[in-house]
Design a protein that fits this description.
Elements lengths: L2 H9 L4 E4 L7 E5 L5 E6 L4 E5 L2 H10 L4 E3 L11 E5 L6 H17 L3 H6 L4
Antiparallel strand pairs: 1-2, 2-3, 3-4, 4-6, 5-6
């Protein structure tokens, strides 16, 4: 799966939008404008960062030790809650899509019911 394929899939999710809050080298896919980020793409490195539950993140890091690592962009206390994946073909498309869906679900849980309703998600 290419970075472009992953971005298109993410943007097809309900209320997804893209922003560049960290400059032109990083594309952040959020749930709603200024909402929680569920996918951070770094095209220059072919990296994608996903939110994850710490236990599930460890499963993916163990299964793909050369391609999946703790969130590179996060302070150490937040690293277990994010995985950064090198998009080099090592991680199968089905797993990348599972990571994307897991990340979206985690971000959605972070929204209040009121915000979910305002975005048409509840």
């Amino acid at each position: 799966m290419t970075l472009q394929d992953l971005m298109e899939r993410a943007l097809s999710m309900p209320a997804a939008c893209v922003e560049n809050p960290f400059g032109p080298d990083s594309l952040c896919i959020r749930i709603g404008p200024h909402g929680p980020i569920f996918l951070n793409l770094m095209p220059c490195n072919l990296w994608a960062s996903f939110r994850c539950e710490p236990q599930q993140g460890m499963v993916w890091r163990t299964a793909f030790p050369n391609a999946v690592r703790r969130g590179w962009h996060c302070p150490p206390v937040q690293q277990p809650y994010n995985n950064t994946v090198t998009l080099d073909g090592t991680v199968p498309d089905e797993v990348l899509l599972a990571m994307l869906e897991h990340s979206y679900a985690r971000a959605l849980r972070g929204l209040t019911r009121e915000k979910q309703r305002a975005l048409g998600l509840a």
